[in-house]
Design goal:
This protein is an all-alpha fold. It contains 6 helices and no strands. The protein starts with a helix and ends with a helix.
Length: about 110
């Protein structure tokens, strides 16, 4: 995949998760997190994809590492049976993922 397009998908993936989700309805959470974000995490926060972005200088090493951590934490949520709409706003492990997404988006803006 062309690196510029991969970067656009990477940014789009991040746009579906962040502190804005804490004020969202269950319907919005279901769409943003359990449809869009979930698909993007698997494809565009995959280690090889992130490495391509890093090597092409689309992202920094810090963004690369934090993005890998987001993916790892999200996969852990699924493994720990925390992959539930009702837990997104209340569970500490979900909060970590949400805050990491905000951090990465802030780093990109700078």
């Amino acid at each position: 995949m062309e690196t510029k397009k991969l970067y656009e998908y990477f940014l789009d993936t991040l746009s579906h998760c962040g502190s804005f989700i804490l004020d969202s309805s269950k319907e919005v959470i279901e769409y943003e997190i359990f449809e869009e974000f979930d698909i993007g995490i698997i494809s565009f926060l995959y280690e090889d994809s992130l490495k391509q972005l890093l090597d092409s200088k689309f992202i920094t090493y810090d963004i690369y590492n934090r993005s890998l951590l987001i993916r790892k934490k999200l996969l852990q949520l699924q493994e720990l049976n925390l992959w539930k709409i009702d837990l997104v706003k209340t569970n500490e492990k979900w909060r970590e993922v949400i805050m990491l997404c905000d951090e990465v988006k802030d780093m990109i803006k700078k």
